[in-house]
């Protein structure tokens, strides 16, 4: 049994989006302890945890399952949601809140596709919280389903490795699964985003407005992850990054918007900006924004905090160029060759920073534009440079992809 539990913990830890999901749950609910628990007939074990409360549980720690409400979720197959224990007729005298000292609590079942029970996505806090609202419950249910799908994908992929004849077949199976998963997530995610927009139109208390805004930001963050996954599958499965090419007269403003948004997200860091652009640049402006956003965020996350990140965009002598540089130690040559691979991270990069697709998508955007993407790193500076011939035709791009 312990071997099985250890394998389940390892499977959950292998899902790179789990820290992001736990962050989103905490933001939406306001709960300061959130975890994924493996629950069996005789055990309760933490597989992933976000604890800003100081509750004390770490990955692999266990509780007496009889002392938890997750046992009730396992037995009934239904979620347990408590806004305020002291006002809840069913749970105000229950032993579990007394043991663990919480007032608000939520536990959503996580199931395998065959219907068998795995465990729960749960959270608690000593303070009351509004958890029973339909939007919160829908979000939590979506997250539990997402964990279940990812968890099962890891198991299926590990099982398929012994059955498939080569690495190409394994990679294609994984990418097809990701494509289907990304597509299937769009419908429930769109419902959540529509719901938050409708709620924002109604008169709300200050606390409710804050909760709705956190939900909206979390949904946008998940949407960005889904878009990254869809871009990844198009790039890997032969479709390439889709472009909407045109002579763009407002590229300067588009690039300035990217810099302003990330400066707001990282106010403690300095960003230098230099733009020298003609009246128009022939490109896909939305994809160029995406390229700059990914490169700039990478520089802000990994660059030296005491040195500014420099952004330069210019067009001269028939060439359009975007460069992003940051200070800090040189990247070892062996790692430079890994930077543009999908799902690859530096050892110091946290899983919560994303799926590891940002630089891969940058490379695919460059390839679709028929451009080059270079990275140089010496002591004190790392620089990424996107460079393409300005104003050339779609045929040049097609030749570049051949």
Question: Kindly, what is the distance between the CA atoms of the first and last residues, rounded to a whole number of angstroms?
Answer: 52 Å
Lateral strand order in the biggest sheet: 3-2-1-6-5-4
Number of domains: 3
Contiguous helical run count? 12
Could you describe the largest sheet, including whether it forms a barrel? 6 strands, antiparallel
CATH class annotation of the largest domain: Alpha Beta
The geometry reads as elongated
Q: Give the low-pLDDT segments.
A: 347-352, 393-402
CATH architecture of the largest domain: 2-Layer Sandwich
Mean pLDDT: 82
Structural class of the helix and strand makeup?
alpha+beta
The Cα radius of gyration reads 24 Å
Approximate helicity band: 40-55%
Predict the CATH topology of the largest domain: Beta-Lactamase
Strand content: 15-25%
DSSP, total strands: 13
- List SSEs in N-to-C order: HHEEEHEHEEHHHEHEEHEEHHEEH
CATH homologous superfamily annotation of the largest domain: GAF domain
GO molecular function, one term: protein kinase activator activity
Catalytic activity: ATP + protein L-histidine = ADP + protein N-phospho-L-histidine
InterPro entries: BphY/WalK/GraS-like (IPR050351), GAF (IPR003018), GAF-like_dom_sf (IPR029016), HATPase_C_sf (IPR036890), HATPase_dom (IPR003594), His_kinase_dom (IPR005467), HisK_dim/P_dom (IPR003661), HisK_dim/P_sf (IPR036097)
Keywords: Kinase, Phosphoprotein, Transferase
Question: Which secondary structure elements does this structure contain, and how are they paired or packed?
Answer:
Elements: H1 2-13, H2 18-29, E1 33-39, E2 44-51, E3 62-63, H3 70-76, E4 80-82, H4 95-100, E5 104-111, E6 117-125, H5 134-163, H6 167-200, H7 206-236, E7 246-248, H8 251-265, E8 271-276, E9 281-283, H9 285-302, E10 309-316, E11 319-326, H10 333-336, H11 358-368, E12 372-378, E13 381-389, H12 394-401
Parallel strand pairs: 8-10
Antiparallel strand pairs: 1-2, 1-6, 2-3, 4-5, 5-6, 7-9, 10-11, 11-13, 12-13
